[in-house]
Specification:
With 199 residues, this protein is an alpha/beta fold. It has 8 helices and 7 strands. A 7-stranded mixed sheet has the order 3-2-1-4-5-7-6, sandwiched between helices. Helix 6 packs across helix 8. The longest helix is centred in the N-terminal third of the chain and has 13 residues. The radius of gyration is 17 Å and the shape is globular. It starts with a helix and ends with a strand. The relative contact order is 0.15.
């Protein structure tokens, strides 16, 4: 049974009895609604996990080139299997394996790796974006009292942990990195989306 669930996840079909993560679905849907995509645009998904988001874009009516960065070789292999038309790499988030100004849109919908070292990652995002390119980032959000408690008690030194920034900290972080017209949108639950543009 476990092997069947594993194969189903690789194929992109839901495993029997597996429930969709409604918040992830909401982030993906809202991110695409906020994205300006034209035919033949190049799109990069950083920290893209298993390639599911790229697979859905590839199945949609978007005639765009797809690329992604995964956090482990195993995730990169799974993503390549799911999205064979995409250029999927295993790489560090502070050293993208693409040339300057390669992409029209960059997504970061799994934000923990980015939030651990935002300036290094954002400088790479800015480097690979074309002038006028769009950056769409999902980030956790909590009201101030809950954010203070969560950062004090739940954040540790593991690679799966990063402090939850405030709205002002997120916007300032993108602006300091060089993005313009930064906008922040709160979603349901504990998520938010930021959009910034490369000058």
């Amino acid at each position: 049974m476990e092997e069947m669930a594993k194969m189903a996840s690789l194929s992109g079909r839901p495993a029997k009895g597996r429930r969709a993560d409604w918040l992830t679905e909401l982030v993906w849907k809202r991110s695409l609604q906020l994205t300006v995509l034209y035919p033949r645009d190049m799109l990069l998904d950083i920290a893209g996990e298993d390639g599911e988001f790229l697979r859905r874009i590839g199945q949609g009516k978007h005639d765009v080139g797809l690329a992604g960065i995964c956090a482990t070789p195993q995730l990169a292999r799974t993503a390549r299997y799911r999205v064979p038309e995409a250029d999927i790499m295993y790489a560090e988030l502070d050293d993208f394996p693409w040339l300057n100004q390669s992409f029209d849109v960059v997504f970061s919908l799994h934000s923990v790796p980015l939030l651990r070292d935002p300036q290094a990652v954002l400088s790479e995002v800015l480097r690979v974006l074309k002038p006028g390119g769009q950056f769409v980032m999902a980030a956790p959000w909590l009201p101030k009292p809950l954010r203070i408690l969560a950062n004090r008690w739940l954040v540790d030194d593991s690679k799966d942990s990063a402090p939850i920034p405030s709205k002002a900290e997120l916007v300032t972080c993108l602006e300091d990195a060089g993005f313009e017209r930064v906008a922040w949108l709160r979603l349901a639950g504990m998520r938010s989306i930021l959009v910034g543009w490369r000058p």
